[in-house]
Amino acid sequence: MGSQRARTSVWVAVADLRTSQLTMARYLRNPETSPAPEGVEPRRLQIYQDLIYNNIEGFISSGFPVLRSLYSKPAWHALVRQFIDDHRCHSPYFLEISQEFLQFLLEGHNPGPDDPPFITELAHYEWVELALMVSSVEIPKAISDDADPLTAIPRLSPLAWVLAYQFPVQMIGPDYQPAEPEAPVYLVVYRNRDDAVQFMALNAATARLLELTRENATVPGAELLVQLATELGVDAAVVQQFGARQLTEFVDSSILTLS
């Protein structure tokens, strides 16, 4: 009987603790709409509130500096507050808050009058730059400094991402904010061997050429260019001429590796 009472007391204590934690969490997410937990002095609650919000907002602002620059201060803080209140993060790590914020914009955010039409594309582009910057992946060593990309096997670097957007995200800033999508924008964003994150503008043909090198393990560059010419329906000789130069530029930029 005594042990039963003890188990019941423990269960009640655990339930009370969980209720208190949930009340605190709801309050910290949105102190304007959720009641404050009982028994905690307002000064201490304000410290918790400021600590949580400032840390999250700081990580988001540093991860999306261009996007942040397009908002007024009240509009930006309203967006961050909505993220904190509405989004349920799947990772406990602060370094992954940027990815969670991007997920929120893609899936849980209803754009409002303060949001630019390119909000998700610009956020994705900035997140890619951050992801490449902090990645622990290394570029495979080159087989030779003077290897010929036509006879060697070109392969997309694991630190090179081929991207397509409706808006020219690489050009967007406070002084340039397009209202409508333009022609498709193709980019490769990459980290080179000096650990600098950069981008290169592509066209549809060069973007497809890079896609052909993804996971390529057996096909030399010259054959990839023949395949590209067939897909484009153009003279293979023309593609070989510009393609050889393009492959060399990609290798020199650490976008492609040769094996």
UniProtKB/TrEMBL annotation:
Domain NGO1945-like C-terminal: 157-250
Entries under InterPro entries matching the protein: DUF2063, DUF2063_N_sf, NGO1945-like_C
Domain Putative DNA-binding: 21-105
Protein name: DUF2063 domain-containing protein
Source organism (scientific name): Kineobactrum sediminis
